[in-house]
Each structure stands twice: as C-alpha cells, then as structure tokens.
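Usage

Read records sequentially. Each one opens with the input sequence:
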Amino acid sequence: MPSSGSGTGSGGSSGGGSSSSGGFSGAGGSGGESTRVVDAGIPDAWVQPDLPPDTPPLTRGPTPQQPGVNFPFPQNRELSRCIYPKDYRNEDVQAAYEQWKRDTVTSDGARGFRRVKRPNEPGTLEPHSTVSEGIAYGMLIAVYMNDQALFDDLWQYEQQFLDSKTGLMHWYIKADGSGPAGTGPATDADED
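and closes with the structure output:
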C-alpha cells in the first residue's frame, strides 16, 4: 500500500534531447514539455501541460559542464517526491536575478567594489545601508547564478569591514561606506 507523500513535479525538454539528473529523477526528458506526476508506489507518468498555443518552449534541463565551472546555472535538478511550478522558465529566473541586481546591488559607498543595499524602508537602520546578511545572501546568489564578478566584488567589500577580534564582517555598514554603524558579527550572515 502506498504511503502518504504524493506530489506533482515537472520535467521537461533539454537542449540536447536527453538529460540526466545526476541520481535524482524528474529532471530533463526528451521531446516536448511535460509534467511529471509522482505518487509513492506508483510508476511515474508523463502528461502534457495545459499551455497556451503561443507559449515559447520551456527551457529546462541541466546546463552542460563548462571549463572551470562544475554546475553552471541552470541545473534544474528535481527530486521525484517534490512539487515544482508547472510553467517555470530559466529565462524568468535570469530576469528576476537581473532585476534584483538593478534594485539592490550598487557601487555607491562600496569603495570601488559592489555591495547589497537595504531597501529604503521604515525602521531604525539607515536607508540604503548594508547588513552582513545581505552580503552573505548576495554571495550565495552570485554563486548560484554563475556571476563570479559580483561574488568577487561582494567579497572584497566584505573584507573591508572585518571585526578585528573575530575576523568576521561587522553586521551593519553605513550607506556611504565610511565605516560600521553596528559592530560585531551576526550569526545570520556568518552561517550563510
């Protein structure tokens, strides 16, 4: 008898006509777009999604390995027991990333590098200042998106504001980059 734990995921076509998921099932496929339907104890089945006729093809599947890059964006490795959006596209992820950079990444106050600025929102912190958690998340996002230049800039920015006792970044930096507005490290950044 199947256990509870059913879900729907998505596979799709890959640029090369077939794809491997590196040990996970559900990624890639061959032919047209499809939705992976999975239920514990029941074999996987492929069904066509309900997409408008003018919808561009969904681009999915792992990007082939490149020199010096083990897992470049996008990877789209999917687990057979998880639920995934039916109509996601790598182009949408890339567009969201570019918008995030336009909205939150700046060279202002970054001493020749780039930093992630806080949104201008009410509260006790200076508008457009930087917190170490933002730098940490920015570095992780840059890795996921294969953006070495941004990663390097954020790292260089972080290195300018290290706590002398711990060697970790001060948690809160003034928007103009003149120094810390809050000293000491923050666990939420350091663990990222």
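Summary fields computed downstream for this record:
- The CA atoms of residues 51 and 70 lie 33 Å apart.
- The radius of gyration is 21 Å.
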